[in-house]
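Annex B. Sample input.
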Amino acid sequence: MKKSLATIGVLAAAALALSGCTDSAAPSSSSTPTDDAASGEVTKVRVAALPIAETGALWAAIDEGIFEEHGLEIEVVPAQGGANAIPALLSGDIQFAIGQPFGPIRADLQDLGVTIVGNYANSLTEGTDVNAVVALGDSGITRPADLAGKKVSVNTIGAAGDLTIRKAVQDDGGDPSTIEFVEVAFPDVPAQLEAGTMDAAWAPDPFRAQIVGAGGTSVVAPYQATIPGLSVLTNITTQKLLDEDPDLVKSYSEAMSEALDWAADNEDAVRAAIATNLKIPAEAAAGITLPTFTWDLADAGIEDLGALAVEFDYIDAEPDYDRLIQQQ
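Annex B, continued. Sample output.
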């Protein structure tokens, strides 16, 4: 088990490092995307995304030429979480981010002008979900209540991961206040879990599947246990960009909507993109659980997430959803 998990971590970290070789100061074009598409020119757009399986839809759609057809050239900038990308959005270093909705919820409460313009992927309401809390097979951790008093990793503390884990532990009769959460990037989870730096870890695919496949235990799928079908990732931008460059937002929204519809119907292409970009074997990518790719925010569960955050004192009040959620 040690060899397989360590190798997984090294390969995933290498993929992240390779994808991170970008010029963070690269300027964005101000040309109109619709005009560019007609003329054959493209507008460069920087999009922050996590190095996880769900991003396969974006990678595959770029390769398919969907964004180029809409006059856009997408540069994918690696991020650890949606909240981490918000400063780059506000500075204009990136134009869009694909991340959890919790970061924008917090940003709205600070009146930072961050908006969710579309969904990206929802978790699954039943069966094996796209993320789960996992532990080593000999840990003795088999159910949510067992996480009480344990050290559990999430990629970003104070977001949907640890919030839904707390709720799942509480519902199972455990004391969520005794959990010690630590922040660990998803690609580092396999090696650190094996090294014993934490007792359990919240991880999406491919890391969830790889850990479980190597003999680990899937303890709980916290999204499915608390808010079934909760959005895994959303498309985020700023009110400033919406106001100043509505054509760019329109072109991006139309392209992403088409890309997600296409990805839902072309799982083989998505899995191939996952294997290529995360540097994992094709057979490993074939076993990954994919989310429901969708641009539609209607069933994303964002309001339920906000209410849960208030219940567990993550935030003092719910955000202004009319301002925060602006479906394009």
